[in-house]
TrEMBL record:
It catalyses: dTMP + ATP = dTDP + ADP. ATP binds at residues 25-32. The gene is tmk. This is Probable thymidylate kinase. The keyword Kinase applies. It comes from Methanococcus voltae. Keywords: ATP-binding, Kinase, Nucleotide biosynthesis, Nucleotide-binding, Transferase. It comes from the Archaea. One of its GO terms (biological process) is dTDP biosynthetic process.
Length: 212
């Protein structure tokens, strides 16, 4: 498919192996919704980060209570990812795996909080590079409207000005800079997420099915 937002498609071996697919985007961009719909459609296992491991639970506590230094959070996210990646290879022998957030979230959020990008990459160096990354791009004013419709407390990151910076950082790493580094995936797809849930799902499925 001729889509200017798909990069590096030549490198992927369609149908040869199960794929590790990652969804990224600002809070409320629709990652969880779309990751689940795609997982159901292609019969994939659905993962997410922070995970539900003990480290992941600690992270969620830290996010809601604001009780960790940013340096500590960066290390906890990396540690949670090490645990997540431990069994990934084995699980990929049998199933596609879709993950809601991954190392790119650390590159964007922890860097925005002031942690050096090289350090973030170093502490995440054992993270497996995904086959496909889907970036859901959305104006934070729209995403925050969606999030405020959700029940539960807003976490510390769910502030509109912060989300604007996060969106820009995603676009920046996606367009050129850090995606050129060790975590550059064979395929990455940027999608305008400002459309209905079903329409967005069809668009994502049509782009992904070319490669799995
Ligand atoms: N395309 C969409 N249009 C309108 N609302 C949406 C859309 N996708 C998701 N939502 C709603 O917005 C909220 C945030 O979606 P969610 O998938 O949890 O986002 P994320 O995982 O990126 O934070 C949820 O209430 C969800 O039902
Ligand atoms: C995976 C990851 C998430 N985060 C942040 C982003 C989110 O604000 C928060 C919780 O993730 P998540 O529950 O996926 O948030 P949402 O559904 O609102 O998108 O953790 C990081 O800062 N670094 C990371 O490496």
């Amino acid at each position: 498919m001729d889509n200017k937002n798909i990069k590096n498609a030549k490198d992927i071996k369609k149908g040869k192996s199960k794929k590790f697919i990652v969804f990224e985007g600002i809070d409320g961009s629709g990652k969880s919704t779309q990751a689940k719909m795609l997982a159901d459609r292609i019969n994939a296992i659905l993962d997410y980060e922070p995970t539900n491991s003990e480290v992941g639970k600690l992270i969620r506590k830290g996010l809601s209570e604001g009780c960790f230094e940013k340096e500590t959070l960066a290390l906890l996210f990396a540690g949670d990812r090490v645990e997540h990646c431990k069994e990934l290879e084995k699980r990929l022998e049998k199933n596609h795996i879709i993950c809601d957030r991954y190392v790119y979230s650390s590159m964007v959020y922890q860097n925005t909080q002031g942690i050096d990008m090289k350090y973030i990459c170093d502490i995440n160096k054992y993270a497996r590079v995904p086959d496909i990354v889907v970036l859901l791009d959305l104006n934070p004013e729209l995403s925050m409207l969606r999030v405020n419709d959700r029940t539960g407390n807003n976490e510390i990151f769910e502030k509109i000005e912060f989300q604007k910076i996060i969106r820009e950082k995603y676009l920046e790493i996606f367009e050129k800079i850090e995606f050129e580094n060790m975590f550059r995936p064979p395929i990455y797809i940027k999608i305008d997420a400002n459309k209905g849930i079903l329409k967005l799902h069809e668009e994502i499925f049509n782009l992904i099915k070319e490669h799995i």
